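Researcher: Next entry in the queue.
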Amino acid sequence: MAKIFALTEASSIALHSMVIIARSKEMLNVVKISEIIGSSKHHVAKVLQRLVKDDILDSSRGPFGGFILRKDPKSITLLDVYESIEGRIEISTCPVDKAICPFTKCIIDNIGNQMTVDFRDYLKNQTLESYI
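Model: Structure for this entry, 132 residues:
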């Protein structure tokens, strides 16, 4: 069955992990986070290290180490998290990226463009604080 919208596993891990970390009063390690979200600890570690690299999370190694937010949850948007993993969301006028269209009106009326704008705006307006 076709899906119009789907999150990658990496984006899902990032978004869910960030909410779990934001809710925690202490550092959480990869094993604990991967158990909660039901994902491979190796994939979770890779995704979370990307968020560390982009200054969204801090990490500590060792038996009492783990991950913690670098900023206040109200200043981290879901868009920050999503774009850290997937890259910047681009708004294009053509859903198939054609420079020249043989038609005077888009066959699908640029609905893909509008959906992308709506998705980006939704993520931009949601902070981690909303999910604590």
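Model: Residues 8 and 86 are 9 Å apart (CA to CA).
Researcher: Noted, moving on.
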